[in-house]
Amino acid sequence: MSAPSKIKGTEFNPSSAIQNSQGAAWMIASCIGATAMSVAVRVLSAEMDTVQIAFLRSALGLWVLFPIIMMNLFIMGKPGQIKKVQRTKIQFTRPWLHLLRGLLFAMALHSGFYALGTLPLTTATTLFFMAPIFATLLAAIFRGETFGLRRASAIVMAFIGTLIVLRPGFAEVSLPMLLAVGSAFCFAVALLISRPLSEADGASSILISSSLIASLTLVGPALWVWTPIAPELWGLVAILVIASSLRMFADIRAYTAADAGFLAPFAFLRLLFIAAAAWIFFQEGFDLPTALGATIIVSATVFIAWREARLKAASSSTS
After folding, report:
1. What is the model's pTM?
2. CA distances from 44 to 33, 137, 232, 272 (A)
3. Which of 26, 67, 141, 185 could be cross-linked to 253 through a Cys-Cys bond (beta carbons 3.0 to 4.6 Å apart)?
4. What pLDDT digit, counting tens, does each position of 158-198 carry?
5. At what angle do helices 131-142 and 175-201 cross, to 10 degrees?
6. How many helices, marked H, and strands, marked E, lie in the chain?
7. Cα 163 from Cα 130, distance rounded (Å)
């Protein structure tokens, strides 16, 4: 058997290369799903309240995700696969954490949809990129995770980028902008809760509980502002539900197949795809402050993901 190929002094692992390719493909699929979801939310928000849109997404999304979850439990979990995607059963051993995550998901979903419905799509998407920055900061505060000067600098730069987008003192900081940042913060807290929940109950259990709890949380407010859905809008509702479910599922598959450090640059494609869609469908431009702030925020996000992957790899090699 021939020795593994060498690339710049390191061993080339064909299996790792295949997994990285699969991860990149799933991340691109996630970006496409996020773009279609954002466009659908923008169009639907002109016809109905965003809380109704958020309820439709969470309630109908559960039915879309259910067969996918079942397929993963019984097919992808079989021995012989490169990686096991999820645990092999549905369980809820920490119900209060499931409840908290579901409530956070509902708040993040509605706040994010409100921002998408009122802000330029690129502005809202840029502010959503603060989620991993918040997650890194919260992990240090509540879980005692440490980070060095490099990642601390990246966090500071990300907040500077956010201020450039918000432009306090130079432009009005609107409620939708604050809700976009709030949505990112809620997603960050939910991400922090997801780690122990995933270890205890598996990703499938989290997907089910989050969609179910969010649906129950949003059903009352949605009925209060309910608008009958015109027949021609059901196609957009279907696009919204399928695209958002695709994004969630593709994210799980991407980070299962490849390292976060490798995938981080591909996340930037989401902003490019959405900027292109905003220009094509809504003739929305990309102003200089937003472009500058987006570059800083995304660069900081990519650096933190790359740095954490490097540290994880170094820790694994020494253990």
Report:
1. 0.82
2. 16, 34, 11, 22
3. 26
4. 888 888 888 765 567 789 999 999 999 999 998 888 878 87
5. 60
6. 11, 2
7. 12
